[in-house]
Request: fold
Amino acid sequence: MAISVNVSARNSIKAQIIYIRYVVSKLGMPNFNVTVSQEVLCSVTLSQTGMHMRFSITPENKKDAWAYILNKLHNDSTYLIFDDLKKEDEAKALFRSINFNDESTAKELDTWCKNYLQDKQLNSLRAALRKKSSRRNKDVLSIELDRDVYNDLNDLAAAEDMTLKGYLAMLIQDRYHEVKPPVANRAKQRKKC
Reply:
């Protein structure tokens, strides 16, 4: 009888073993005995597959995943560090060999990540992709302002008896209609596609 257990990859083997024993006891199998080797095998299998099954690179996020990894490889010299330098060179060469325009790019990237990235790096990649997707799906975006600029803008908005958001939107719309930037039409056309 196979027991499927969903345990986080970050749980220790000991915690997983305790959880497996608990599940077995709750199933009402008092004569079922799990040997240490079976426990370790089950635990290792759970820790290896638990996280990877929940996240994979898809055709929708392959571009962002590829850009994220490329940026890390260029800017972070410690991103891929292995005890074996050949494995490090192999990982970098294999990443460079992935043809971005192929149908199989998402699958190749997914396999590459699972083979060469550590769990922490995979979690960071997943978080970055989730954040990027969330930003794309929102109609509201955030900007950063220096405190002095914020205070000045807030004072100007208060003088017009408007909210900061409304005042800033009014200023931008007024200026936009004066200038009518040619790139704006192209941006709107791209957004419709």
In short: The chain is about 65% helix and 0% strand. The longest helix spans residues 119-137. The radius of gyration is 26 Å.
